[in-house]
Specification:
Elements (H helix, E strand, L loop, with lengths): L26 H5 L6 H13 L3 H17 L3 H18 L2 H18 L5 H16 L3 H18 L5 H16 L3 H15 L6 H19 L1 H21 L14 H17 L3 H18 L1
Helix pairs in contact: 2-3, 2-12, 3-4, 4-5, 4-6, 5-6, 6-7, 6-8, 7-8, 8-9, 8-10, 9-10, 10-11, 10-12, 12-13
Length: 292
């Protein structure tokens, strides 16, 4: 499928009225905080990502980063930096990703978020970025900081807690700490079973578990366990489709579900589940086309 491109300028109608630095009337005006609307920022970002218009998505984040700075909105800037971390991680742009990590950590300190849930979420984002680029030791340091805060402040059925344990497990596998990895994966599954619309995330965890079992025991010895995990993952991923199961639409965005299907398809194919691989790849394409 040909990717859509965004060749023109970002339309002003898509955004709040921008703040012009030449319009400041006094030094005191510079101290006023004019907050950006992060809900609107994320909705528009998701729209660009759902149609794979990555150039527009990057410009969108840069635009709102500038607006947050002009409005003296450090919280908004912090939130946009968090979105940039995830965006550049998924795009494989290491230098840009860690530039965003550095800025997010700087703002975290200025805002006094070191021990807050918002700070912990930032640590998870930073840890996920570190893991994606092979910095396992640094990733685990971020995850441990987040875990201490999440465990103390979040309920058992919070999806953020499940995501943390899943990411910690990935880092443990990279460091060949398989016992700890399996414990983290089981914990992630237990949490996500309590989360409405958690089926896609549970499917991801099961596929990650299959990879961990293969890494620990080899394909031949782990074949039966891997098949069990893939069968469960296939069932859960199909059950998590918000367009087929409308009761999930409140919890699972179609664009995100398409992303999960696209991400999971190669793992099914790797283990010889070609029908499942094609099914979910086609479903991702179908949903993406509906959203464009």
């Amino acid at each position: 499928m040909e990717l859509m491109r965004f060749d023109g300028p970002i339309e002003a109608a898509d955004y709040e009225e921008p703040r012009c630095p030449l319009c400041m009337e006094s030094p005191e005006d510079e101290e006023r905080i004019r907050s950006i609307d992060m809900r609107r920022v994320i909705e528009k970002l998701d729209e660009y990502l759902s149609r794979k218009d990555y150039q527009a998505a990057e410009r969108h984040l840069e635009f709102w980063l500038g607006e947050a700075r002009l409005g003296n909105d450090q919280r908004g800037e912090f939130a946009v930096r968090g979105e940039q971390i995830g965006f550049f991680r998924k795009r494989g742009e290491e230098a840009k990703c860690f530039s965003a990590v550095s800025e997010a950590l700087r703002l975290l300190g200025k805002l006094g978020y070191e021990e807050s849930v918002s700070g912990a979420t930032c640590y998870v984002n930073c840890g996920t970025a570190a893991q994606a680029f092979g910095r396992s030791e640094q990733a685990m340091d971020f995850f441990e900081r987040a875990k201490a805060i999440y465990d103390a402040n979040l309920p058992e059925k919070d999806a953020r807690l499940g995501g943390l344990y899943n990411n910690m497990a990935l880092t443990c596998v990279a460091e060949k700490r398989f016992g700890e990895a399996h414990a983290c994966y089981k914990r992630a599954l237990q949490i996500m079973e309590k989360v409405p619309g958690g089926e896609p995330e549970r499917a991801i965890t099961l596929l990650n578990m299959a990879n961990a079992v293969e890494a620990e025991h080899g394909m031949e010895k782990a074949e039966k366990k891997i098949e069990q995990l893939l069968d469960e993952a296939e069932t859960l991923l199909a059950a998590g489709d918000p367009l087929i199961h409308p009761e999930l639409s409140e919890y699972v965005a179609p664009g995100y579900y398409a992303f999960v299907c696209e991400s999971c398809a190669p793992t099914f194919g790797y283990y010889g589940y070609f029908l499942a691989a094609n099914r979910f790849a086609d479903r991702a394409k179908e949903i993406t086309e509906q959203l464009t």
